[in-house]
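Just scan my protein:

. . .
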Amino acid sequence: MKLLPVALAIFYKFFDEKLHVWTQTRLDDGVYHGLLEFPGGKIEENESPLDAVVREVHEEVGIMIDPLAGKFMGIYPTAHKDKVILLNVFLFLDRHELSSKGSWLCIERDKLSSIYEGKIPGPNHEIIDDLFRSIYSDPHQT
């Protein structure tokens, strides 16, 4: 089975004491067409995951991000017919330029990502829910 490494950026913020994650609508004709997703894409040969996420955010969103501002969250494998996609996830705090380019999803404790079923790709549910749990299990982060 082929492995396909991908880098994703999750921008997040706290508003009204609630976690919000930023998404954009996928416009290509692939399986995720029309869904809300995080910016990212394939990691090119001889490119680090962090370099890839910086490049992909610039290509897809039109903003430059500081790679030193990113925090590695983890790798999330997701199986498809003939390949396994390895989602290398990086966290970034809110950027003011994002507001006009996509939408913020509110993640609430009792529902987590479930209220976005059918609106976001399946693998993103685990990522969002893990992010919420990691933030709210650490009493030093708010």
User: Anything to note?
Assistant: The mean pLDDT is 91. The helical segments are 49-61, 122-136. The chain has two helices and seven strands. Residues 12 and 21 are 4 Å apart (CA to CA).
